[in-house]
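Handout, page 2. Input:
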Amino acid sequence: MNFPASLVAATCPAVLAASLAAGAAERVRVPPDIELRHGANEIVAKVDECRIRLKIEGGDYFWTSPSSADAVFYRPDGKFTRAHAPYLQKPDVETYSGVYWDYIKPRPHDEPWFGLRCTASTAEPSTYVDANCPARKQGGAWILTEAAARLPKAAIEPIEGKGWDGFVVSFESKTPGLRSLSFCAVGANTLMGQASYPSGRKQGLESIKRVLRTVEFVD
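Output:
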């Protein structure tokens, strides 16, 4: 992955090396080949078929993995450790489908994070987008799909950024005390994401939305 020279300084080799060194004592879930960026910076990254630009702040991490397609934003409460970091789950190579995917965040669950996938926007219906974007635009407003409307305590909120608009859908998670989150940003491409946050704390959700609003699609 070729990042602008101005972003080279944002790489955290010392942090990554320390994390890798600790890997023997951790159950490593994050791919070993992540391109890690850290601290206040503007980042350009390739996510699947797309190139995006986004802004992160001090204490934030963003990475992609050429081998596994992980693309993750993470704000740990302390130092970065791979055992606590979110990752793209592929539980079974035989049954895993690129259409259906799932990001997981091990404990602690009160750290802001989200995982991304992206595809080119087209006028034709897309099974990939239909499976991962739980709302459709009708009359200028985003409306939950029938399936999403049946999710426990589902709530939808519009969100927009430069050159795109979209939505955030949250609903009650299977894990007690958590709400799950799905979002889609639709413009030149369709950016899809997943996250979770504690039910009783809105700070994590607001942090996620603040980063999402900085996203731009890069030609």
